[in-house]
Amino acid sequence: MLIGQMIAVERSGQLRLEVPITRKGETRICFYEIPLQFADLVDTLHADSFFLSLFLQSMIDGEDLHVEHMLSERLFYAVKHELMPIMAAFNPLYKKINITADHLDDRPVTEYLPLPKRGIGTGLSGGIDSLTCIKQHFNDSVSPGNKLTHLFFFNVGAHGMGNTPERLAAVEAKFFGRLAQMQKCADQIGLPLIPINSNIHSFFTVGHLECCSLVTPGTALVVQRGIKRYYFASDGHNYEDKFSRLRQGEVCDATEIDSIIVPFMSTESLTFSPTEIRLRRTDKIRLISAWAVPHNYLNVCWHIDAIKRNCSVCEKCCTAMAMLELLDCGDKFREVFDFEKYHKQAKKYFIGKVIAKRNDEPFFADIMNTAKEKNINLYRQTTYPAIFWAYFQDSKIHNFMRNLPGLRSSVKLMKKVIKPNHAEN
Questions:
Q1: Nearby residues of 132 by Cβ (< 8 Å), 6 or more positions away
Q2: What does the pLDDT look like over 14-58, one tens digit per residue?
Q3: Cα dihedral 404/406/409/410 (nearest 10)
Q4: d(CA 39, CA 36)
Q5: CA–CA distances in Å: residue 248 to residues 87, 238, 239, 251, 255
Q6: Burial of 421 (0-12, 13-18, 19+ CB in 10 A)
Q7: Tens digit of pLDDT for each residue in 236-260?
Q8: Taking the C-alpha atoms of 339, 340, 343 and 344 in order, what is their torsion angle to the nearest 10 degrees?
Q9: What is the pairing mode between strands 99-105 and 65-72?
Q10: Which residues contact 250 (CB under 8 A, 6 or more apart)?
Q11: Which long-range contacts (CB under 8 A, 24 or more apart) does 324-331 make?
């Protein structure tokens, strides 16, 4: 992979950083763009953002990576000598490659483009982890040197991925639709929200979960002129959950090792700090339930079109709603969840899955442990057929029966009897 010379151009009220990327013999323009009113935050000297975001794809392709534009020396060294060996050890599908660059720079960007005062940022997604990070570092008591000053909203894969003009346009439409909702949330919090649009996701051959631990910090490096520290909110699994899954040899995405890899992404200008990994998901819900902002803006839904209100039946929604009810704070979140729909269509099947899969999914174990702490019997909130179905649907027998035409109708009938509403979970 070749990352070419970066240019900065103004276009339609945006400052746009562009770089030609040559991958597998094909050259396309990759860009990041940010509204001009926030241009003073942007590092227009280093191609660090493109380098960090794309080096994992080079490992996946097995292509050597060369950068023609100037890079921060600290980042280059860390990626080549620390991050790449970690990622190769973490996933054998990631191949070790040769990484080279024409120009390395060991000076912070502020020596070239000085600013009188630099800020501290984090992402605002509307999710539990994001809102916990913001509450802990802005609303709660925190020293001035650690207090948030800026929020960010990125289009780098979480809103969809694709590389055709039609797909890119659809992803952008969802990004700007959600941005409008998150702007209202940021206004209530009392911090500026800075959007960064990009087509970086069109260069990936893997899903967003696999690369988000690299592309999110990579995108944050766009603003390393004006941001000196960036809080990287955890994925919701605490240290015990992460290391337990790794010990058991489960196939996990890179978010399981955020606490190890994210600090290596820092440069001479910007420091990355993983946050709240010590907390269980229920701990985070306890924290944010006492804060008014999440009551109107919490968004956890799997369905990408669920902008203002969560679908209330997908597994992510059910996980949050089950925890909210266990913690006696569900009523506070009726603006964003439909609890009647959850109870009617999804709850007993979801609780059945929690019981059946509690040893496989940390969030389910968290729900079971919280119920035990509060002396709540979850078996009374489901049925034995629902528990049986949760065991059965992921079994080898189920997969075998589904693949045999003569038995496929029997599986459908069984599902119809057990789950007449075809709840999504």
A1: 233, 276, 279, 284, 287, 288
A2: 999 999 999 999 999 999 999 999 999 999 999 999 999 999 999
A3: -90
A4: 5
A5: 18, 16, 14, 9, 16
A6: exposed
A7: 676 677 666 666 666 567 777 888 8
A8: -150
A9: parallel
A10: none
A11: 324/285, 324/289, 326/282, 326/367, 326/370, 326/371, 326/374, 326/376, 327/282, 327/285, 327/286, 327/289, 327/370, 329/285, 329/289
Q: What tens digit of pLDDT does each residue of 44-96 get?
A: 999 999 999 999 999 999 999 999 999 999 999 999 999 999 999 888 899 99
The full set of domain ranges for the chain reads 2-275, 300-418
Report the b/e string of 102-131 with b at 16+ CB within 10 A.
eeebeebbbeeeeeeebbbbbbbbbbbbbb
> Which tokens in the block code for residue 174?
């969802």
d(CA 121, CA 140) in angstroms, rounded, equals 16
Task: In whole angstroms, give the CA distance from residue 367 to residue 320.
Answer: 10
Task: Measure the CA angle with vertex 357, ends 361 and 369; round to 5°.
Answer: 70
**Pair of tokens at residue 382:** 């489901």
